[in-house]
Amino acid sequence: MIKIDLSLPRRREKLTALQFILLFVGILLGTALIAGICLVLQWNSLNNLAGEIEELRARRDSLEVVSAEIIEYEEFHERYTGFLMAMDEAGVWADKQLDILTRLRTDLEPGMRLLSASIAGDSVVSWVLSPSNVKVARYVEALSRSGYFAELESVPQGTKQGLIEHKVVLRLR
Fold first, then answer.
1. Which residue, 53, 135, 152, 166, is the most exposed by fewest CB within 10 angstroms?
2. Which pLDDT band holds residue 140 (cuts at 50, 70, 90)?
């Protein structure tokens, strides 16, 4: 087999100075254009970031306000709960005092009168008028059976309106 090469040898052409300058200016302009577009896009994203930063600042400020309001609400709720507990305790104490006063009135013997009663801490002092010391003794015994009182003491104080005045001191259980 025989090979025949019919191609003509070509000479390499060198770029002229004008072509070289035009190629260099073209590459330079292309690079500058691409860099400019990149800078514009970067600038736009920086502006977007600045807007997002402002949004985040506003959101942070609103969250701080909400956080302060939540703390204030929790403090208010704690005070409210404490107030309700104090009211419940006061209600229990008032009910207990009412029960004691009711007991002091219902256990009176016929002819006896309850003049006054004071309830302080763990003691009750009542002043009663009675026609006899025996009725006061039965009154004190009835009170001791009620279960409210642990220690009972009756002290005659003299006479008033023709009846014997007694000071009855009671200790609460």
1. 53
2. confident
Burial of 73 (0-12, 13-18, 19+ CB in 10 A): exposed
State both tokens at 14. Answer: 């060198």
What is the SS3 string spanning the chain? CCCCCCCCCCCCCCCCHHHHHHHHHHHHHHHHHHHHHHHHHHHHHHHHHHHHHHHHHHHHHHHHHHHHHHHHHHHHHHHHHHHHHHHHHHHHHHHHHHHHHHHHHHCCCCCCEEEEEEEECCEEEEEEEECCHHHHHHHHHHHHHCCCEEEEEEEEEEEECCEEEEEEEEEEC
31-64 pLDDT, tens digit per residue, is: 999 999 999 998 888 888 888 889 999 999 999 9
Least confident window among 10-14, 32-36, 82-86, 157-161: 10-14
Indicate yes or no: pTM above 0.90. no
